[in-house]
Amino acid sequence: MKVSLARALGTCFGVQDAINMAMAPEFHNDLTIIGQLVHNPQINESLKNNGVSVVKGIEDIDKIKTKKVMITAHGAAEKTQQKLHDAGFTVYDASCPLVMRVHKTIKGMVEKNFFPVVIGQKDHVEVRGIVGDLDDYLVINGEADLEKIRKRGKRKLGIVSQTTQQVEKVESLVKKIMAMDCVDAVSFVNTICQPTRDRQIAVWELADQVDLMIVIGGFNSSNTKKLMQVCKEKKIEAHHIESSSQLDKSWFKDKEHVGITAGTSTPENVINELHEEILKIAQEIKKTQETVTS
Predict the structure, then answer these.
(1) Which of 126, 205, 276, 284 is catalytic?
(2) CB 142 within 8 A of CB 173
(3) Which burial class, exposed, middle or buried, applies to 83 when counting CB atoms under 10 A from its CB (0-12, 13-18, 19+)?
(4) What's the pLDDT tens digit per position in 81-90?
(5) Catalytic annotation on 171?
(6) What are the residue boundaries of the structural domains of the chain, listed by start?
(7) Could you check whether 13-96 and 98-188 share the same CATH topology?
(8) For domain 13-96, which architecture applies?
(9) Tell me: the pLDDT tens digits for 248-262?
C-alpha cells in the first residue's frame, strides 16, 4: 500500500504566526484568548498547558481574569477590540492579515455604495468579525439563500467570501447572482485565501491518484471541512479525523494508495504522527498478505 502526502497541507502562515504569538514566554499564565485561537484540539491543549485561558467570546468579558487578551487568527470587528480596550485590557491582535484584507475590502465596497454580501457561514467567528462593523449586510451560504437577495431589493452588490470557502462554490454563487434580474451591478473580490486554495487544489490532484483519503484537522475547522467536500465531489472515500488515534484499520483493507491532507490549522507534528501511523498499518497489511501467500 502506497502512502502519499498532498503537496500542500497543514498549518498556514497566519495560523502559525498566531500560535507563535500566543505561546511566547511573556504570556505564560497571563493571557486570555477571545475564542479558539485556531480550530485545532492539539494546539488548544498546548495553549492550556502553557497557562493560557480561553473564553468563548466577547460576551464572556466579565469572566476574563487576566489583563492581557488576544484576538484570534479569525479576526474581530473593530468595535469588539474597542470594547476590550475600554474595559482596560491590553489587546494583542493575532488576526490573519488575509482575514483583515476581507474586512478592508467589504468596507471599501460599502463606501462606494455597494450593499455588502458575504459568502460564508453566518455563525462562524470569521464571518461575525467581517460583518461586525457593518450597519446592514447579507450572509449567504448556498443557492437556497439567493432569494434573500431578491427580498432585500438591493441592486448594487459588493461580494466577498469567508477566506476558507470552497473555490468552486463561491465562483458558482457569484455567477448566479450576476445573472439575477434584480441585480444591476456586482463588485466581487474573491477573498478565499491562497493557502486554502492551494490545499483544495492539492487534494483535487491527489484524489485522482488514490483510493482513500485521510483528512486531519479540527472537526469545527471550516477549511478542513472544505477538503472533505472536495473528496466528496471527486467521489473518493475519505475520513475526517482529529488525531491518528481515531484511525480505523478496516478503512485500509484492499486499498492500494492512500492520500493524506490536513487543514490550515493542523500542525506539522500531528501530520507526521498520522503519516507514521498509516505507514505502520501499511507494513502490517503487507506482512499479513505475505503470510497468506506463503
Answers:
(1) 126
(2) yes
(3) middle
(4) 999 999 999 9
(5) no
(6) 2-9+194-293, 13-96, 98-188
(7) no
(8) 3-Layer(aba) Sandwich (3.40)
(9) 999 999 999 999 999
φ, ψ of residue 8 to 5 degrees: the values are: -135, 120
* Class at the top of the CATH hierarchy for domain 98-188: alpha beta
CATH number of 2-9+194-293: 3.40.1010.20
pLDDT at 293: 65
3-state SS string for 179-225: CCCCCCEEEECCCCCHHHHHHHHHHHHHHCCCCEEEEECCCCCHHHH
pTM for this model (two decimals): 0.89
